[in-house]
Amino acid sequence: MKIPLSNPDITTLEREYVQSVLNSKDLSLGPMLPSFESAFAKYIGTKYAVAVNSGTSGLHLAMKVLDIKDGDAVITTPFSFVASANCILFERARPVFIDIDPVTYNMDAQRMEDYLSSLVTRHLPLPKAILPVHVFGLPCNMSAMMKIANNFNLHIIEDACEAIGAEYEGEKVGAFGEIGVFAFYPNKQITTGEGGMIVTNDEEIAKLCISLRNQGRSENGGWLAHERLGYNYRLSDINCALGLAQIERIEEILKKRAIVAKMYNEKLKDIDGIIVPSYRADVKISWFVYVVRLSDQHSRFERDKIINGLRASGIGCNNYFAPIHLQPFYKDLFGYKEGDFPVTEHVSDRTIALPFFNNLTEEQIDYVVKTLKRLLCSRCSILGG
Ligand SMILES: *Cc1c(COP(=O)(O)O)cnc(C)c1O
Fold it and tell me: What is the pLDDT of residue 384?
């Protein structure tokens, strides 16, 4: 049996919408763009949504509009996809990593507060912003982070690229910070092929993002009038059509994913040596990936063996995430080394993302579980001598 790690869920609705754009000849900056944006804003509950050509572009524009630049620092997590820290480097600012909570895998708010207080005590300059990432679709502790941002006068940019539809205290993530960013690569909950979305309640921010994504053009100026240094971060109407169909199906999509996650949890929770993702009553998870963690006695070496074993059995899987601070160019730039963020490294050495998508069948899940069990057992018998 061959099972991919992820698999986009495209129906006739998506095909119809994309076909209609192809028939219309309005391939970019056509009517699908505002339709997708307004459906998205309505879903998240923000006044504005600005579509861009990737989540990374969205994060980059967030840095630009908040005027984060050379010499500034931004707090974020080392346990994430690399783009959430790279966007800070794009503007020559410096990421300050805060280690994660070992249960939620999100930035530890207490650690963040302690760090900021220590800066105040030592009369050192404060960072300009916090960039929390809702890792694997589990919301960060937003009430703590909002309080910290308030107390220390920091912007909040939420990286909600893995968390569309996740809720914290009944409110959708992405709507808490001044800016929230989503992504639509094919492995995300909804896809546009490539794409991203910036959400905000601030009209100035929305307008600036619209200009910056479109070569710095102004609202009423001509095609060749550029008010500021901008980019081509536009999302074509073909992509927007795909996105509109997907956002119309979002409830169905998230429901399917929750069912798959629950099935995995049921089948894996009693296996020795496996820690399943935590189900939490106080937040709504939007399942992005399904990541299990091997228990503490397993090493990274054993985890990698298991990943290889799963792949050899046709099962797509990966080591989500490798710590950002240990990526070679981060080590070179900032001198990071192993041991700098021990919780992140401990988790990162033991995690395995298993196949996870809307239409994963119980039969496929059973095959993954059976294979994982077999590989774990062969490990323990080797370990046992
Ligand atoms: C996917 C993702 C991004 C970037 O999205 P792209 O659309 O691939 O640029 C950023 N941050 C996180 C946490 C992500 O998972």
Answer: 43
State residue 111's pLDDT score: 98
Report the residue among 57, 61, 87, 162 best suited for mutation to probe ligand 1: largest number of ligand atoms under 8 A from its CB.
162
218 CB-side CA count, 13 A: 7
Residue 238 in tokens: 């073909």
Closest CA relative to residue 178, chosen from 215, 105, 128, 212: 128
Per-position b or e across 326-343, b if 16+ CB within 10 A of its CB: bbeebeeeeebeeebbeb
CA nearest 105: which of 276, 252, 253, 232?
A: 276
- Identify the segments of the chain with pLDDT beneath 70: 379-385
- The b-or-e profile of 189-198 (16+ CB within 10 A means b, else e) is bbbbbbbbbb
Ligand 1 surroundings by CB, under 6 angstroms: 54-56, 80-81, 83-84, 133, 159, 161-162, 183, 185, 196
Residue to substitute in 80, 84, 181, 318 for testing ligand 1 pocket (most ligand atoms within 8 angstroms of CB)? 84
Between the CA of 193 and the centroid of ligand 1 the distance, in Å, is: 13
Q: What is the pLDDT of residue 377?
A: 83
> Which has the closest alpha carbon to 55: 261, 256, 194, 244?
194
- pTM here is 0.97
Cis ω on the peptide bond leading into residue 321 (within 30° of 0)? yes
Q: Which atom of ligand 1 is nearest to the CA of 54?
A: 7
Q: Three-state SS string across 298-328, please?
A: CCHHHHHHHHHHHHHCCECCECCCCCHHHCH
pLDDT digits (tens, 9 = 90+) for 37-63: 999 999 999 999 999 999 999 999 999
